[in-house]
Amino acid sequence: MPAAAHALLTRYFNALNERDSRACLALLSDDVLLDINQGPREQGIKAFADYLERTQRCYRESIDNLQILTEPSGQRAACEFTLSGEYLSTDDGLPDACGQSYQLTAASFFEIRDGKICRVSQHFNLPEWLAQVDF
Predict the structure, then answer these.
(1) Rounded to two decimals, what is the model's pTM?
(2) 66, 96, 98, 127 - which has most CB atoms within 10 Å?
(3) How far is CA 59 from the centre of its chain?
(4) Model confidence at 39, in pLDDT bands (50, 70, 90)?
(5) Do the strands 100-113 and 76-87 form a parallel or antiparallel pair, or are they unpaired?
(6) pLDDT above 70 as % of the chain
């Protein structure tokens, strides 16, 4: 089970790096939960698709140095990675975008059910990100 979870999350992060929303959404359960750093919980494929559309419009990001840790049943996993990006278009409630670059360590936690990702919880240091993009 941990090997299957590891492979699933590798495909998920590859899809994010390739900006392939269709491939990413195919890995999620219909009732997927999304907990965004400093934001409300969202639920469902439509909400996740909207999130991907917004992030692809506002940011150009790459995920590197990915470390995937799974527990023995393969139902939960944690990932740590380096998030490098460019802030392309102003996101709601955040500073104005003008192509600022950023790089920070981030983590995501996952719950997996029936071979699909059913919960994604994303965490990063928001004050550090703001310091890098808000001059």
Answers:
(1) 0.95
(2) 66
(3) 12
(4) confident
(5) antiparallel
(6) 99
CA distance 69 to 41: 23
Q: What is the mean pLDDT of residues 21-33?
A: 98
Residue 6 CA to residue 50 CA, distance in Å, equals: 25
List the 41-43 sheet strands across, edge first: 41-43, 28-35, 116-124, 100-113, 76-87, 59-70
Q: Which residues lie across from 82 on neighbouring strands?
A: 64, 105
Residue 45 has phi, psi (to 5 degrees) of: -60, -40
Rounded to an integer, the average pLDDT of 50-71 is 98
pLDDT at residue 96, as a whole number = 96
Q: What are phi and psi of 27, to 5 degrees?
A: -90, 0
Domains and CATH numbers, the chain: 2-133 (3.10.450.50)
Contacts of 14 (CB under 8 A, 6+ apart): 23
